Amino acid sequence: MLAADGEQALQEFRSHRDHIDLALLDVVLPKLSGPEVYARICKEKPNLPVVFATGYSPDIALLQKVQQQGLFVLQKPYSPRDLARTVPGNTRPASPFESSQIIRLTPLPNV
Known about the structure:
- The protein is an alpha/beta fold and 111 residues long.
- It has a single domain, classed as Rossmann fold (3-Layer(aba) Sandwich).
- The protein contains 4 helices and 4 strands; from the N terminus they run αβαβαβαβ.
- It has a 4-stranded parallel β-sheet with strand order 3-2-1-4, sandwiched between helices.
- Helix 1 runs parallel beside helix 2 (34-44).
C-alpha cells in the first residue's frame, strides 16, 4: 500500500490494520512525519514492526533513539536485498512473510 502523506498513511493503516505485519516508513513525509505516523499506529497496534527509510545523512541522536527502541533505519538509496536483510529481524515468526502485507508510506511522485 502506498500513501501520499502521513495522514493518508494513517487512513490506509486503519483500513487494513488486521492485514499489516510490517510498516516501511519514510522518516520525512508531508503532513505527519514517519515517526509521528508510527507513534499513532503504535497506539492501535503496539507490536507492529517498523523499518524507517531516510535519504538524509544519518543523525546520530535519531539512530541511538531508534536502536534503543529496537527499530531499524535504512539509508537511501537501498536495494531490495538491503530491505530483505532488515525485514526478517522485524517480522514475527508466527507470521510467514509471504502472507504478510507491507505498508510502504512514502510520498508519491507528482503526476
